[in-house]
Every structure is written in structure tokens, then in C-alpha cells.
Amino acid sequence: MKTNFTRNFFFGAISAVLTVVLFAIAGNLSNKTIANADEPKSKNRSFLDEKVPDVKKFKLLYSFDPLNVKPSDGVTFTYDFDNSKEIKGKIKRVCYFLRYKKDGKDQYAAVVMPPLDPDPTKLGVPVMSIDRTYQQVISDVKIYSNVEGVETGEFKDGCNVEFWPGNTTKNNTINIPDANSSYDWGDGPTSAPGYGSMQIHNYLKKQCVISFSNFRGTDHCDVGIGNNPNGHPDWTFTQSVKNFTDGQFMILVETE
Ligand SMILES: [Ca+2]
Ligand SMILES: [Ca+2]
Question: What is the pLDDT of residues 11-28, one digit of tens each?
Fold first, then answer.
């Protein structure tokens, strides 16, 4: 009896240890699959994934801190995380996400839209090296935000982008409806490299949604969600990064 008890106890203990080890390995693999160990921990996606579950399956393409942009000559841009060489497959949708704290509270906006270009290296901050100017109306856009005044939901029509590496004229050079001679959703690109514009608007609602300008980082950048309450609606010349803390800009893609 004693021998059987000892043998059973021995095999039972071994079995328990193996079970614990297997669960630990499985748990570790599972965590890596979900969290993507390559993505920067300091700029994790938990906030975005919680607020916008639709993009949980999107892959992170670029991330950076819009409140602390590294100075550049307007030709290149330094990201905290650049996954552009690793994205494979046809890109179906892109998400542009901006978050910062104003008066200690999170403000965010996410815009999900078709890609402006099939090449992931052309979807980042529009500095000279990506060799693209996107000044166009876009369709099939989804907007998510907690900022007062920003209309959320699906917009089949009514949105446009102003992405370019150069300076900006206030003139409404492609005749966007309901724009005027302020810096808003109807402006135009001039000499490059220059101030730089990376703006997404909902012109039918007369709203700036996400704005990031003066991104050479040689001076304070302009960043904003919704219409700027004081001055030009698209935040140009506000140097508004001084007013916010804890910034996060992410660009994500959904691939086939
Ligand atoms: Ca204008
Ligand atoms: Ca503008």
C-alpha cells in the first residue's frame, strides 16, 4: 500500500508540475499574439482598442508623440515605431488616431478610411521623402471621437484631406464647399519643404477632425481635434502642443 501511495503521489506531483508549465507556455504565447510584443509598450493600444473596437485587428504602422516631435528638415520624419517595411498584403482601410490630454482629460479622434495609397510607406506624415501630396475628397469614412462638437459616425461623403510637406495658402484651391479665406478645410499647398499639413476634415459639417501641422518640429507644432475655438479653424499657427500633455498619434492598417 505504501509503495502504491508513494508512486501515485510521485506521478501526481509530476503531472501537476507539467500542467502548470504547459499553461504558463500557452499563456505566454497567447499574450504575445494578442499584444504584439514588437509594438512599443509606452505607446500601447489599449486606449484605442477600448474606444474603437472596430480597429482591434488593425496592425500598427506608425506611432509617434505629436507633442514632442524630433526636429527635421521637412524631408524625413522620426517615428517612435515604424512598421512600414513589415506590412504585407493589400491594405483595405487605414486608421488615423490622435489622442492627448487637455486639462488632464483624454481627448481623442480616430478616422477610418480607405488608403490614400496602396504603399504603406506613403501613409505616414507627409514629409518630402514620401513624395506625396493628398489634397482630395475622400469617401466611406468613419469618425470616432469624444470631443464636443465633432460629429461621429459613418460619412459616405463629405470628408477631405490636406496632406502635404510644404507651406499652406488659405486660398480654397480645389473649391472645397463651405471653406473660406481662413486656414480651414479648404486651403492649398505651396513651396516645399515648408510648414507641413496633415489634416482630415468633415467639410460638410464644417469641421476639422484631426489636425497636425508644422511637423518639422523646429518650433511648436500645431495639433488639434475638432475646430480650434480661437483662431483659424484648422489650428494653423496655434503652437497648441504647449497646451496639451501625454500625446499619442498612431496610424494603423487593415490588410487582406
Ligand atoms: Ca481656407
Ligand atoms: Ca487646412
Answer: 554 454 444 443 444 444
